[in-house]
Amino acid sequence: MDFFSPAANDRKVPHDPYALSDAVFEAGYEDAVIGTGNPRLLGVEIEAEGEDAESVVLTAARMILKGLTAGSKLDEVRPDLVSLAEVAEKLNVKRQALQQREMPLPIAGGLYRVDDMLAVLTAAVEPGPGRRRARFDLDASRKWFVAGAAARWVNAKLIIQQIDPVTAEPFETQRTTAS
């Protein structure tokens, strides 16, 4: 899920949710789930395939940003932090089933880094001496976990200003092409 901030306007004129949706569809994501309930954010959930999850996320962000009003920016990419309930839903198990297993430490308000969670769950799938076999299908949700790890990297790069939030391009690329 990507969160974009449509370009600032004088908040008396709300953004047109249909125009925002059209920008996402015109970017080639006809099956996207779009959230326009907050006038300052556009939430977009997409499914996309590719070799490298980070590249897929950034390519999608670039394509969507091109269709939004000038000055719109990428705020964050999710899932980077996840709850046990979200993980349980993806694994098709109850949250309590996960609570009975060794889990990584939560980092903020009961949220876990998605890649830490993937590492623990991957280890749980491998039966070891004296351990129960996991009763969940990690392979069915692996793409979600991989996308989450890419989301963490993209968010980190946004924070340390390695990626321009307005274009979703690396800053080095922009400086090189501008010269």
Q: Mind explaining what this structure looks like?
A:
It comes from Roseinatronobacter alkalisoli. This protein has 179 residues and is α+β, with helices and mostly antiparallel strands. The chain has two domains: 2-79 and 148-178, Alpha-Beta Plaits (2-Layer Sandwich), CATH 3.30.70; 81-145, no CATH class. Helix content is 45%, strand content 11%. It has a four-stranded antiparallel sheet with strand order 2-3-1-4. A hairpin with a 6-residue loop joins strand 2 (33-35) and strand 3 (42-45). Helix 2 (53-67) packs across helix 6 (138-159). The longest helix is centred in the last third of the chain and has 22 residues, at 138-159.
Describe what is shown at a glance.
The protein has helices at 17-26, 53-67, 84-91, 95-99, 114-125, 138-159, 171-178, and strands at residues 2-5, 33-35, 42-45, 73-77, 81-82, 112-113. It is of the alpha+beta class and 179 residues long. A hairpin with a 6-residue loop joins β2 and β3.
Please supply descriptive tags for the structure shown above.
elongated; two-stranded antiparallel ribbon; 2 domains; 179 residues; Alpha-Beta Plaits; four-stranded antiparallel beta sheet; 45% helix; 7 helices; alpha+beta; DNA-binding protein
Instruction: Figure out the total of helices.
Output: 7
Strand order of the largest sheet: 2-3-1-4
How many strands, which pairing sense, and closed or not: the largest β-sheet? 4 strands, antiparallel
Structural class: alpha+beta
Radius of gyration based on Cα positions: 19 Å
**Percent helix among the residues?**
40-55%
Spell out the helices and strands N to C: EHEEHEEHHEHHH
**Count of individual domains:** 2
User: How far is the first residue's CA from the last residue's CA?
Assistant: 34 Å
Q: Mean pLDDT, as a whole number? A: 86
Give the beta-strand count. Answer: 6
Q: What proportion of the residues form beta strands (DSSP E)? A: 5-15%
User: Shape from CA axes?
Assistant: elongated
- Uncertain stretches: none
CATH C-level class of the largest domain = Alpha Beta
Task: Please state the second-level CATH architecture of the largest domain.
Answer: 2-Layer Sandwich
CATH fold annotation of the largest domain = Alpha-Beta Plaits
